[in-house]
């Protein structure tokens, strides 16, 4: 949905020469969208053959850029044919479309090696050839954020961050949203004959701008007998696309808040922390860890674009990225000395370049470099990069718990530390012990237990005097499941 041509034309000049003669790439981190799938409104969303082809071609491109023996930007010391597991880390949410896309991409990145390389000789002289022409097995780590995201109409609920969901839902009470809801109703109503088999009449509005666009987009790609073709012409589809872009941008990023406080963009804040952590390990391990790959949904792209200020480079960054899009962070040095374990560059000699491909990256349509954080430069020093990312990156559980306002599960420990009196809180922040000689954490637990006892006593009194009764969690859960969220859509909307 982004305008790839426009973006490519507006990319700023590269600050450091993008040439393998001048640079040595020492590591990369890629964030990648899945390939083509079926519509969200006809669940479950399924990965398609077209999607498989899209991500596989993308994997082939990145192989030709970073891994192949003749790659122009070959990562220093990377294994070109047989994957070395310590050099690569791959992750994806527990989602069928994303998991399948990840595996398809990896098949292009490290293809089967053929019988010669896939054959080994045992001690007794027996030759064993690996199956599937030496198909390479690369582990994929499952991440929590984005679980089952392709079966959700809106993706933010998959993050588990309560404040992020609240912030996204605030978009539905904004003037921008309500103005568009009112001004576009006649347009959406006119499309009813093309949508009524999937959407109820009350659902055909800007409230469901993305899922309406998604349904029609999938039909135009796959359904040769699609009945809405008379209503959906180029003009109306372009309008649907623009409205879907505005809708999803409003949910993914709050332009009225600073990057530091933009909890609506929580998925990208977490991603930023993961990127910095991975690339930092590349440096501290002196290149032992080389390639990071993570698959995720389009909303994380939009959130990151907003946090990094890319919408100020080109307004098209406010759009939903196409299938198989990717953004890449190249870690490189301009040192003229060949990088080795004995001669690894210092942090002052290391730079980062951000590249983005809207849709499948190929040799004919290569990723384009763009400036991050309003720097005006498409290659910035490692220190500038980490400083810019640290403005919004979430690097640990405590930070996530704090910004999300969560106090259950693993967040309970951090909630306990701040539950004491002001003096205890001050001591906790300074790392000192309290006056009784116990650590702030222990005092916090004791304080929490005392508080809990008082609260339980008060609750019992209220129940008796007020005539209230206790309701089971199962009954509450059933009631909650029927309560509309996300601007009136049920939680199970897909």
From TrEMBL:
Transmembrane segments: 444-465
Keywords tagged on the record: Membrane, Signal, Transmembrane, Transmembrane helix
Superkingdom of the organism of origin: Eukaryota
The keyword Iron-sulfur belongs to this UniProt entry's keyword annotation: no
InterPro entries: His_Pase_clade-2, His_PPase_superfam, Histidine_acid_phosphatase
Pfam families, sorted: His_Phos_2 (PF00328)
UniProt-recorded Gene Ontology molecular function terms: phosphatase activity
Signal peptide positions on this chain: 1-17
PANTHER family per UniProt: ACID PHOSPHATASE-RELATED, PHOSPHOGLYCERATE MUTASE-LIKE PROTEIN
Family label: Belongs to the histidine acid phosphatase family.
Protein name as catalogued: Acid phosphatase
Source organism per UniProt: Cladosporium halotolerans
């Amino acid at each position: 949905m982004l305008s790839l041509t426009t973006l490519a034309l507006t990319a700023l000049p590269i600050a450091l020469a993008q040439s393998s003669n001048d640079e040595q790439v020492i590591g990369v981190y890629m964030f990648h969208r899945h390939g083509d799938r079926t519509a969200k409104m006809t669940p479950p969303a399924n990965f398609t053959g077209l999607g498989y082809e899209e991500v596989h071609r993308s994997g082939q491109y990145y192989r030709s850029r970073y891994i192949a023996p003749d790659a122009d930007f070959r990562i220093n010391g990377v294994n070109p044919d047989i994957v070395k597991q310590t050099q690569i880390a791959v992750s994806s949410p527990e989602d069928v479309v994303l998991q399948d896309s990840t595996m398809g991409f990896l098949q292009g990145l490290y293809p089967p090696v053929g019988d010669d390389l896939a054959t080994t000789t045992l001690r007794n002289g027996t030759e064993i050839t690996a199956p599937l022409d030496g198909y390479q097995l690369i582990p994929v780590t499952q991440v929590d954020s984005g679980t089952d995201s392709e079966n959700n109409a809106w993706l933010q609920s998959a993050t588990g961050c309560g404040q992020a969901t609240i912030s996204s839902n605030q978009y539905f009470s904004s003037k921008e949203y309500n103005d568009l809801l009112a001004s576009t109703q006649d347009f959406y109503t006119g499309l009813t004959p093309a949508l009524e088999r999937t959407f109820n009449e009350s659902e055909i509005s800007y409230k469901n701008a993305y899922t309406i666009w998604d349904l029609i987009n999938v039909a135009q790609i796959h359904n040769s007998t699609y009945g809405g073709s008379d209503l959906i012409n180029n003009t109306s589809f372009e309008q649907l696309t623009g409205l879907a872009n505005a809708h999803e941008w409003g949910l993914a990023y709050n332009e009225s808040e600073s990057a530091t406080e933009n909890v609506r963009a929580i998925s990208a804040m977490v991603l930023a922390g993961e990127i910095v952590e991975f690339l930092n390990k590349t440096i501290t391990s002196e290149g032992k860890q080389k390639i990071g790959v993570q698959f995720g949904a389009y909303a994380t792209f939009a959130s990151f674009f907003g946090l990094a200020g890319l919408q100020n480079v080109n307004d098209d960054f406010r759009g939903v990225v196409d299938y198989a899009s990717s953004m890449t962070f190249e870690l490189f040095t301009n040192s003229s000395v060949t990088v080795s374990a004995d001669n690894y560059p210092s942090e002052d000699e290391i730079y980062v370049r951000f590249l983005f491909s809207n849709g499948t990256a190929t040799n004919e349509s290569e990723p384009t470099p763009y400036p991050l954080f309003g720097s005006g430069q498409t290659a910035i020093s490692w220190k500038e990069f980490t400083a810019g990312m640290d403005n919004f990156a979430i690097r640990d559980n405590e930070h996530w718990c704090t910004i999300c306002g969560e106090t259950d599960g693993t967040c309970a420990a951090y909630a306990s530390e701040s539950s004491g009196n002001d003096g205890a809180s001050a001591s906790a922040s300074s790392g000192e012990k309290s006056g009784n000689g116990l650590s702030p954490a222990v005092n916090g637990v004791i304080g929490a237990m005392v508080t809990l006892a008082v609260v339980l006593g008060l609750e019992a009194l209220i129940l008796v005097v007020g005539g209230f009764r206790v309701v089971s969690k199962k009954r509450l859960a059933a009631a909650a499941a029927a309560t509309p969220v996300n601007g009136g859509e049920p939680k199970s909307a897909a």
